Amino acid sequence: MLQRLITILWPPFLIAGVADALFFTLFDPLQLLYQQEPVFGSRLAAYTVGFFLFWLLGIGSSALTCYFQRGADEINHCPLPPSQRPPGCPKREGCADCQ
Amino acid sequence: MDPNTPTPPASETAHDLEESLYAVRQKIQPRAVHGWFANWRLALVLLTQLVYYGLPWLRWDGHQAVLFDLAARKFYIFGLTLWPQDFIWLTGLLVISALSLFLFTAVAGRLWCGYACPQTVYTEIFMWIEELTEGGHLARKKLDSSPWNIEKARKRGLKHLLWFLIAFWTGFTFVGYFTPITLLGKELATFSTGGWETFWVFFYAFATWGNAGFMREQVCKYMCPYARFQSVMFDSDTLTVTYDTSRGEPRGPRSRKADYKALGLGDCVDCGICVQVCPTGIDIRRGLQYECIGCAACIDGCNQVMEKMGYPKGLIRYTTENVVKGKYSDSGILGHVFRPRVLVYGAILLAVIGAFLITLANRVPLRLEVIRDRLTLSRTTDEGRLENLYTLQILNMENQRHRYRISVSGADDIRIVVDDKNLQAGPQETVQVPIRLQVDPASLKGPSTPILIKVQAEENPKLTREAKSSFLRR
Q1: What range defines the domain where residue A64 resides?
Q2: CB-based contacts of B51: which residues, under 8 Å, 6+ apart?
Q3: Are B73 and A47 an interchain contact pair (Cβ–Cβ within 8 Å)?
C-alpha cells in the first residue's frame, strides 16, 4: 500500500516542479487577474500554491492510472470462500471464518 | 560479525526485515570503508558542499553572486542578470548539464551517482554522523534490535539532533539561493522569516532528513529517473565497477598460507566485505546491476582484503565489459575511450556549449514593446496630418543607465513626436513612453500600414531593438 502511495505521489512531484517553473516563467503571478482582482498577494505565495496545485493535479492523474491498472482478479469477487483462499491472498485477511 | 560470514543467519534476517517505503527490505547498515575511492568521495563531498553552502554568501558587483531572485523575477549569475525572457539560456544550461552527464556516463559509468549526487553526498554525511553517534555497522545492527532504553534514546536522540541541524542548514541554504541569504539570515536570527520562506526551509530540510537518513539507497533504486535510463548510455567499453569472475572464481575461504591454486580456488576468499560495504546492499559478484551506483566502496573493501592476503589488488576494479571478455587488456581501456558514441556525445555537447556562448555574447539586454492606444484609433492634427498614439515599453536589462533614440519606418514622411525629450531608463528599469506618429494621409495606401519602431541606446549602437506595429487610417 505504501509502495502504491509513493508511486502516486512521486512522479507528479517531479512534474509539478517542472510545470511550476515553466508556467511562472511565462506568466508573472502579479499580473494574473481574476475578475479584475490580482489572484496572488506575493510572488512566493503564487509559486508555492502553484506548485501544490500542479502536484495535486498530477496526483489525481496518477491515482486514476493506478486505479485503472487493477487487474480483473482484483476487481472480481473471488469464487473461493475466504477460508479456502491460498495463504497470502489479500482477500483472505480479515475474513470471519479463517483461523 | 566475523568477516567470513557475509550474510546473517536466517533468524536474524527475518528479525531485521522491515516494511520499508517501497518493498520489504532488509535495513542496510553498510560497513565504513577506507581507501583510494573513499578518499575521492570524501574530497568531492567536501568540495560540493563547500560550493553549495558557500556560494550564496559570495558577493558580486554589489549583489549576491548567485541568486535566483524569484520574488523579483531576476536571476543573477555572477556578472549576468537573466530575466524571464531569457529563459532559453537557463534551459541551455540544463541541456549542457544533461549532455555532460551522458558523456561522463558513456565513458565511466555512474560517476555522478557515486561521487557527486546530493543523495550520495548527504547520505555519506548522515552516515558519518551515524558512525559517530551509534558506532560501527555491527554496533548499529545491535542497537536496531535492542529494546528502547536510556542509552538507545540518548544515541538516537543525538543522531537526530545532528541530522536535523545539518538538514536545517541545508534547507536554509537552499532557500538562500532564491531569496537574498543575508536578509534571510537576519530574519532567521530574529525569528521573523516570511511564511513562504519558512515553509520551504522546513520542506527542504525534511526532504534532506528523510532522503539521507531513511530512504537512502531506495531513492536511487526506486525514485531516480536517471538510474533507470543510464544503461542506455552504457556500452561494452564503458568503465564500470566490475568483479573479475575469471580471476575470482571458484571462490571460497582458505588459509593465508595455503596454495589456493592447488586447492582449485580462485582469488575470491568469499569474505563478503564487498557486500557489507555496499550502500545499496547488492553483491557485485553477480555482475553489473542497475542498483549499483558506482561508488566503488566494494573496490576499496576488496583491495584491503587482497592486500592482507598478499594477492594482487583489483579483483573488483573499474574496468570494461570487453576487458573482462578478454578482447583487450586494462591498458587498452584509454584507447577505447575515443569511440563513436563518446565522440558523438562530445561533439553535440561542444556544439551546444558553443551555441550557448555565442548567443549569450550577442544577447541584447534591451526589450521593447509597442502598445497601441486603444481609445483613440486615429485623429487629424491642425496641419491636416493623421496621427496615431502608442505607448512604448522599454526595459533596460543592464546594470547601468541608458539614454535612447527612437526612430520609425514603414510610411513616407512619417514623423515621430516624443513629449519626453530626455528619454532614459535606469538600471533594470522599465519606462513607459507615450509617442505620437504623424503621416500625410495621401501617402497611405490602405486602412492599415505596417510600421517598424526602433529604439537604440545613444552611447551603444549595438543596443538596439525593433518592434512591429501598425498605423491606422481611421
Answers
A1: 2-68
A2: none
A3: no
Q: Which of B274, B209, B269, B272 is nearest to B241 (CA)?
A: B274
Q: What per-residue confidence (pLDDT) applies to A90?
A: 66
Find chain B residues with C-beta within 8 A of A42's C-beta.
Answer: 71, 196
By CA distance, what is A41's nearest residue in B? B71
| Domain assignment of residue A54, yes or no | yes
pLDDT grade, residue B10 (50/70/90)? very low
Q: Find chain B residues with C-beta within 8 A of A45's C-beta.
A: 196
* ipTM for this model: 0.77
Q: Quick: pLDDT tens for A27-51.
A: 888 888 888 888 888 889 999 999 9
- Whole-angstrom Cα Rg for chain B: 32
Q: Give pLDDT tens digits for B403-437.
A: 999 999 888 888 898 877 778 898 888 999 999 99
Chain A residues with CB under 8 Å of B367 CB are none
Number of domains in chain A: 1
- A56 in a structural domain: yes
CB contact (8 A) between residue B200 and residue A14: no
Q: What's this model's pTM, rounded to 2 decimal places?
A: 0.82
Q: Are B390 and B469 in contact (CB under 8 A)?
A: yes
What pLDDT was estimated at residue B42?
A: 92
Contact yes or no for A31/A89 (Cβ under 8 A)? no
> What size, in residues, is chain B?
474
Assess if residue A82 is contained within a domain.
no
Helix (H/G/I), strand (E/B), else coil: B123: helix
A10 → closest Cβ in B87, B199, B223: B223
Interacting residues of B465 by C-beta distance below 8 A, sequence separation 6+: B364, B366, B367, B368, B454, B455
Strands (E), B88-247: 240-243
Are the CB atoms for B6 and B272 separated by under 8 Å?
yes
Handedness of CA B351, B356, B360, B363 (dihedral sign): positive
Residue B392 Cα, gap to closest chain A Cα (Å): 19
Which of B71, B199, B223 shows the shortest C-beta gap to A43?
A: B71
Which of A21, A18, A13, A23 is closest to A55 using CA atoms? A13
Quote the pLDDT of residue B319. 92
- Residues of A in CB contact (< 8 Å) with B are 2-3, 6, 10, 14, 25-26, 28, 42-45, 47-48
Q: State which amino acid sits at residue B102.
A: F
Q: Is the peptide bond before B427 cis (omega within 30 degrees of 0)?
A: no
- Is A9 domain-assigned? yes
Nearest by CB to A44, from B19, B87, B196: name it.
B196
CATH number of the domain located at residue range(s) B366-472 in this protein? 2.60.40.10
Q: Where are the domains of chain B?
A: 1-363, 366-472
For residues B246 and B259, give the distance between their C-alpha atoms in angstroms, rounded to a whole number. 18
> How many other C-beta atoms can be found within 10 angstroms of the C-beta atom of residue A38?
12
CB pairs under 8 A between A and B: 34
